[in-house]
Specification:
This protein is about 55% helix and about 0% strand. It folds into two domains: about 45 residues; about 60 residues, Multidrug-efflux Transporter Regulator, Chain: A, Domain 2. It has five helices and no strands. By secondary structure, the protein is an all-alpha fold.
Length: about 120
């Protein structure tokens, strides 16, 4: 019997949980059958579902809009705007953002929100 665990981030919506699970399945499919995964990605994109395949972004894409950063990391743009307004994600002088800063903030938030591992006596 599988022990039921709690979702790591209690603030995630049902849609966010489903999206993360779908991305997990896609990652496994990409490992075992990349050609089939690419066919399914194209089929989803043809139906207007562009969210499933990750956006290809390189680290040298220095200046981006926050919406572009959100799409690249699979986060909600509204969440990143809140972080930017609170100073969690720094803004460049021209109002743009860097993917590296967004990834760093997301990583820190994920680490902070992760449940503590059980202690072994």
């Amino acid at each position: 019997m599988i022990k039921q665990r709690k979702w790591p981030n209690a603030n995630d919506t049902a849609l966010q949980r489903r999206t993360q699970i779908a991305h997990s399945y896609r990652a496994v499919l990409m490992d075992v059958a990349p050609e089939r995964c690419a066919v399914l990605d194209r089929a989803a994109e043809a139906l207007g579902e562009n969210w499933i395949a990750p956006a290809l972004v390189t680290d040298d894409a220095e200046k981006m809009t926050l919406t572009q950063c959100a799409k690249a990391v699979g986060a909600k743009a509204g969440t990143l705007w809140q972080w930017a307004n609170r100073g969690v994600v720094p803004r460049n002088p021209d109002g743009s953002f860097t993917l590296t800063d967004v990834q760093r903030a997301l990583s820190e938030r994920t680490r902070r929100d992760a449940p503590e591992p059980p202690r072994v006596a």
